Amino acid sequence: MPATAPVLNREDLARRGDEAYTQQIRPRLRPEDEGKFVAVDVGSGAFEVDADDHAAVSRLHQRVPGAQVWLVRVGYPATHTLRHGR
Questions:
Q1: Deepest of 18, 28, 62, 66, by most Cβ within 10 A of its Cβ?
Q2: Kind of pairing, strands 47-50 and 37-41?
Q3: Radius of gyration, CA atoms only, the chain
């Protein structure tokens, strides 16, 4: 069984996730990926893209068990927005 990477703290996870997305993944995305979610395993650089955040993360975990996931929404500064109820 392969050794697992140590669990990263939030700051390191965010830094590595943003670096992987900006440098390796974003240049490979297509215009039709705008608004979709990208789940990135910060350890391996593996990623999944889907319109549904849960589906992207689930597929990534199937491919990379134990993945340390960073979630990004293509073209948005945040993955989700908080809305005040009416």
A1: 18
A2: antiparallel
A3: 13
Burial 69-86 (b: 16+ CB within 10 A, else e): bbbbbbeeeeeeeeeeee
Look up residue 83 and give its DSSP letter: -
Question: How does residue 78 score in pLDDT terms, banded at 50, 70 and 90?
Answer: confident
Return the domain boundaries, the chain: 10-73
Alpha carbon 80 to chain centroid distance? Answer: 13
Q: What is the pLDDT of residues 29-51, one digit of tens each?
A: 999 999 999 999 999 999 999 99
* E strand spans, 24-84: 37-41, 47-50, 69-73
Q: CA-based angle 20:23:24, to the nearest 5?
A: 70
